[in-house]
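Message: A physicist's question: would you kindly supply an amino acid chain plus fold tokens?
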Amino acid sequence: MTKASVCTIGDEILIGQIVDTNSSHISRALNSLGIRVGKMVSIADDASQIKDCLEAELRENDIVVCTGGLGPTKDDITKETLARMSGAQGWVENQEQKEIIIRILSSRGLQILDINLKQALVPDSCQVIPNKLGTAPIMVFRFPAGRFGHPAVLYSLPGVPFEALGALPDVLEDIRTHLGLGAIVHSTMMTYGLAESALAKLIEPWESALPADMHLAYLPNPVTGVRLRLSVYDADDSAAERISAQFGLLKPILGDYIYAMEDTSLEAVIGALLRGSGQTLSCAESCTGGMISHLLTTISGSSEYYLGSVTSYHPDVKAKVLGVDPKVIQTQGIVSAAVAAAMARGVRTLTGSTYSVATTGWADSYGDDREPAGTVWVGVDGPAGTRTARFNFRNDRKRNIERFAASALNELRKYIISAK
């Protein structure tokens, strides 16, 4: 299997000034080609460290992808270091990148300075993939087997995430072209409602019986649930059909824990269920503070079915806007099935929607004598009446809110499907 390493260059990462998001995206992209990423490394803005580290990674890997250190200022020293490391004899101007630089700066109304145009200069030892989104080109250094004991290639990308991720399709195409990788088939099943460990236990017999050439990955996310991805590397024409058959065996085992047979989200699935049906949706949120509404409106075309929400954080708003009886709050507790149900009915009445979903819970260390911290009650209302569900998570406030919102969307999904 082809091996790779991902390296980030810059003091700002090592001192915690910014968070490195490039590495995970690059690693995921390489993995999609069947390339194993064995290491992620962060390097300081120091020429000797950059050289030593990259040479060590090239000795161990077929591919090294590095980001950062390619700006126009003096502290960006990666390009000069790579020139020396690769034995460059001089510098050449990449005309295509120069034209991109001029176009980008002109469109922003900025003066075109020599320091900017200098970014189009590259070592004569590299090939260039033009950076269509920024001023620093992607440099490709190909090393023969005699240098590191095997053929190796280094891709130097800008550190700006928008530019680095924008360059990935061209980098992947270059890798496919030069490494002659075999076909890879991936397929994804989306699940929600089971923790990764519980899911693994439930499907253990199925996983143990998978064909030897199929590889299963568990990809958990608090908002989308656990993705199950089956992959076949060096695949033949039958791979996609065989993967589909294996996933088919999981359907009676997992039931409605499965919400999609593609890489998608709960809010997208809900949109697909409602779009074109004439049915509508509203939300009443307390502990989720508008996150359900935010997730729903990230879907293009959601205005067709999503009417709006009430963020009823204070008990008075629950009572005055949604019509929740204060006595119910006093007797049942602010975090209770009765309050969640009343909120869902109230916002549905207020907006005239077909369906509604509501949340009330304790997102962090606060709780009461009825419900502990991390508890949420979800209410869903619609033509089939009102349903409620209780969940408890033991995470920090932000993660609990994410899981509260996702759990509410999943309950809504199941309600809509049952009503059809």
Notes: DSSP finds 17 helices and 17 strands in the chain. Residues 131 and 167 are 7 Å apart (CA to CA). The longest helix spans residues 397-419.
